[in-house]
Amino acid sequence: MGEETSKHENTLWILTEVYYPEEISTGFYLTSIAEGLAATRDVRVITGQPKHMSRGLRAPKHEIRNGVEILRSWGTTLSKNVLPFRLLNMLTIGISIFFRSLLSFKNGDQVLVATAPPSLPVTTALAALIRGASLIILVQDSYPEILVAVGAVRPDSFFVRFVHLINRSVYKYATRIVVMGRDMNALFQAKTAGLDIPVVTIPNWADLDSIHPTPRTTNVLLAEMGLTNKFVLTYAGNIGHPTDVETLVDAAEMLVSEKQIHFIFIGDGAKKPWLINAVAQRNLSNVTILDYRPRSEQIDFLNACDIGLVALIKGMRGTAMPSRTYNLMAAGKPVLALAEEGSELAMVIAEEGIGWRVDPGKAHELCDRIMQIYKQRSVLTEMGERSRRAAVAKYSAATAIEMYRQALS
Question: Domain range spanning residue 137?
Answer without folding.
Answer: 2-206+396-407
